[in-house]
Design brief:
Number of domains: 2
Number of helices: 6
CATH superfamily of the largest domain: Glutaredoxin
Shape: globular
Order of helices and strands: HEEEHEHEHEHEEH
CATH class of the largest domain: Alpha Beta
Largest sheet: 8 strands, mixed
Radius of gyration: 25 Å
Structural class: alpha+beta
Helix content: 25-40%
Length: 215
């Protein structure tokens, strides 16, 4: 309903109309403040800061180097997979492909970053074929590097569950979490990548973070 409109009093009206006009002005102000309060109440609370992504330098599927600094200034979502995984990696990659279609686009799209935990096998060429099969666009990057560099990203950066207790030829045991990262390389959320409800929450949080509503 539109707010009541205050009209200029007619000269012939009795002077006692003035208090009513003042009360109407106060009522309009109250409605405006009430609307502001309702907007504040409905606005999502800021996402927590759960840590920071350290500097890293890895190799993208294109063969070009890509580091944390290249992702600064963007909101992005990370996951951890390997191309010969028989377990939940295909499901994670399918979820990421779904995010690629679902997340808001425009001049500042949310980036997707998949880290391979099987660097001995997942060369840039292998990752290029895997990305093509997944339908990955230019906003979805696939990274590999030395085993120690990947382990350091898991251990010191994302702090997700992992284990490196096998020979160098085997993948690093890894988490099924998606990780939401803000423009300042701060971790803002962890989400089960195989849980549809969690992935929906991730979409909402990532969009709000990009648009400044959850920062």
């Amino acid at each position: 309903m539109p707010s009541p409109t205050l009209r200029r009093p007619r000269l012939q009206k009795h002077i006692t109309d003035a208090p009513r006009l003042r009360w109407s002005a106060l009522a309009v102000a109250g409605l405006a403040l009430g609307g502001l309060g309702a907007w504040i109440a409905l606005r999502p609370p800021p996402l927590p800061v759960l840590g920071g992504v350290p500097a890293f330098s890895l190799t993208e599927r294109s063969g070009q180097p890509l580091g944390a600094g290249d992702l600064a200034g963007h909101v992005w979502i990370a996951d951890f997979v390997f191309t010969r995984c028989p377990d939940f990696c295909p499901a994670l990659t399918a979820r990421m492909a779904g995010l690629q279609k679902t997340l808001p686009r425009g001049s500042d799209p949310i980036r997707l970053v998949s880290f391979s935990v099987d660097p001995a096998h997942d060369t840039p060429d292998v990752l290029r074929d895997y990305a093509a099969h997944a339908g990955a666009g230019s906003g979805w990057v696939f990274l590999t590097g030395s085993r120690e560099a990947i382990a350091a990203v898991l251990r010191d950066g994302f702090k997700v569950a992992w284990a490196d207790d096998g020979p160098p030829s085997t993948p690093i045991t890894h988490s099924d979490r998606f990780v939401l990262v803000d423009r300042r390389l701060r971790i803002r959320g962890y989400y089960h990548g195989t849980d549809p409800a969690e992935v929906k929450r991730l979409v909402r949080d990532a969009a709000a973070l990009r648009d400044g509503g959850a920062s």
